[in-house]
Amino acid sequence: MRVIASANQKGGCGKTTTAINLSYSLSQKGQKVLLIDFDPQAHATMGLNVKPSDLEKTIYDVITPKKNWLWGIEDILVPVKDNFDLAPSSLILSAFEQELSGLERREHRLFQAIQPLKEQYDFIVIDCPPSIGHLCFNALRACNEVIIPIDMSLFSLRGVAKLIEIIIMLKDKIDHDIKSRALITMYDRRTRYSRTVLEKVQAEFGSNVFDTVIRYNIRLRETADLGLPVGDYDKNAIGHLDYENLAEEVIHSRETRAYQNLNTSNAAQDMLQKTEEYIDGAAELPEDESLDSEIEEFSGYSSQSNYSQMIEAIARRSTDSFINDEDGI
Ligand SMILES: Nc1ncnc2c1ncn2[C@@H]1O[C@H](COP(=O)(O)OP(=O)(O)O)[C@@H](O)[C@H]1O
Ligand SMILES: [Mg+2]
């Protein structure tokens, strides 16, 4: 079983779109896939047309210390298609961040929860929240591979740097090896800025970037709103073809020598250094290129999401109410 997290601290860079459509394409190729929605915002759940409000139990009920392992992931599964199951999420998952403080082995809860599933699935894909907290730590501890979607913005790359620091820390502290690779998303070859960023990222990240590039495709946006993987909506959509290619590359990457021989810590260190060099270098892009008018299409996603602050605020509120509940018992 391979466990792959789709992670980047930045919101809106394509984590959920990648988690849904990679899972779908892997399942269409005969792989047994479980997608774990590990974001309280539940976009992967809603993106597969499952309403969090209709669910009795979600991934929160599996991993919260409050339920003391009463439920396993098998108790919350929602079948999506042949070979494709979903472990759904809901907003209550945001309480998890606060519930864990002081708890022993708190980073291992998702890892423990997926252990019984080893024989059942070929792939587990984890859709991470856009924040670095206990949820993200749990996802990284549970996975052996990370896909880091990078849209065409520097904020995305800053998210990469933070993530790689944690990957290095997990290797140093608990000898947990994670293979990490960047995935270029929302690429538009018509913009000079996109082309420049792509060339730079490919040149500098080398084998730590997927050959597959996910192009900007409006169908991906439409289908997320409709609650469908893009391939179910339009088999000819560019977005579908790109995720098919990504699934092929993921399946075959096992056999790629360069990929196998990567030493996690060195590779991650290298990637971190390259990211920092890249961020410094990109600041020197000529102004007319970085402000290319065509890039306006992405402007909604070019600024840092304030989602993580929102989640923190909700988490704080939820914990307060738990504390009050407990006081009342
Ligand atoms: N390749 C793409 N082309 C066009 N729109 C995309 C693409 N990838 C993602 N999107 C859209 O961008 C928005 C953010 O993507 P999402 O996957 O939700 O990001 P994240 O999970 O990182 O926050 C969504 O509206 C999604 O439909
Ligand atoms: Mg998301």
Q: Could you say what the CATH architecture is? A: 3-Layer(aba) Sandwich
Report the end-to-end length measured between terminal Cα atoms. 43 Å
Largest sheet, described in full?
Answer: 7 strands, mixed
Structural class: alpha/beta
Strand order of the largest sheet: 3-4-2-5-1-6-7
Radius of gyration from the alpha-carbon trace, in angstroms:
19 Å
What is the tally of beta strands? Answer: 7
The percentage of residues in β strands lies in 5-15%
Q: Percent of residues in helical segments?
A: 40-55%
Shape: globular
The CATH class: Alpha Beta
Structure explained in plain terms:
With 329 residues, the chain is α/β, with parallel strands linked by helices. It has one domain: P-loop containing nucleotide triphosphate hydrolases (Rossmann fold, 3-Layer(aba) Sandwich), CATH 3.40.50. It is 48% helix and 11% strand. The chain contains 15 helices and 7 strands. It has a 7-stranded mixed beta sheet with strand order 3-4-2-5-1-6-7, sandwiched between helices. Helix 1 packs across helix 11 and helix 7 runs antiparallel to helix 13. The chain is globular and about 55 Å long. The C terminus is likely disordered. Bound molecules: adenosine-5'-diphosphate and magnesium ion (MG). The site of magnesium ion has 4 residues, from helix 1.
